[in-house]
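ARCHIVE CARD
Drawer: 12
Card no.: 0347
Subject: one protein chain, sequence and derived structure
Cross-reference: see card 0346
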Amino acid sequence: MPRISAATVAEHHSQRRAALIQAGSDLLANEGLDAVTLGAVGAATGLARTSVYQYFDSTPALVAAIVEDAFPRATEQLENAVVRGTTPQTQIDRFVSVALDLASDPTHRSLYALSNADLPIHCRARVRELHASQYAPLLRAVSDLDVPDPELTTRLIAGLVQAAAQAIASGSSRTRVQARTLALIHSGLSSAE
């Protein structure tokens, strides 16, 4: 019988599965989607490719697990940031700050890129759905400002945040980009009231 590295077999399997997901996330962040294979994550965790099949029956299943693991953690960070704000304006500012932190994280950037990757249609749709759910805390804060059409306003702010993230990824100063992004958001929201 193979040796287990946990108190129970179930814990051992859970730890192995988490290690495979982490290895896949690292490969995705550092080398791109093509590098994420069952063989590669097996090698990264010290498992034979055939052993990886005990946890994932295909590379798309592994990628789906990576997505389902990473997005909720990011969404929770955004939610926590907004909850700590005392006014809708500070909630929006906190959302933008954390969103830019996440956008500079290689795994998050890679996950965002998956929405346009050559994945099965249902996988791309799920990535887009999870990404869209990350903007729910922002929508609540914008709605509390009593501006016209809060959903459209939130989508426009989201587009600005995505452009800001791209600017940072291209080498622009994080401090400068965040300050300009918030100035544009504040200006736009004050003129919309």
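Annotation on reverse: Residues 78 and 99 are 7 Å apart (CA to CA). The chain has a mean pLDDT of 86.
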